[in-house]
Amino acid sequence: MIAGALAAQALSPAALAQEQGPALAPPPAYQKASPEDKAAGKAQRRQEGRAAVKAGSITGEGTPPPAAQAKVPREQRQQARAQRKAETARAARAGELQASGEVGPSK
Q1: Which positions ≥6 away from 97 have C-beta within 8 Å?
Q2: Mean per-residue pLDDT for 6-26?
Q3: Nearest residue to 78 (alpha-carbon basis) of 86, 90, 68
């Protein structure tokens, strides 16, 4: 019981801070920017942004979609489909098609 109390004291944050030194010290106070500093920074960023837009150097902004391919008339698509189907049927009848995927007993 006494050993538990001593261990709790040894592991308390205050004891650790004394042992560790400045590593567990609180961080330095944060200095807020004044309204004038904020306004100056905003004006500078806006000016840089305007210059980038004029120069066209903004990458990834407004990436245009790829150009559309020319439309193929329906009759041509139907003819091409019929030719592919006929070629596949001929190859299947001739035994020229090879099986796809796993063939044979599975492990």
Answers
A1: 88, 91
A2: 62
A3: 86
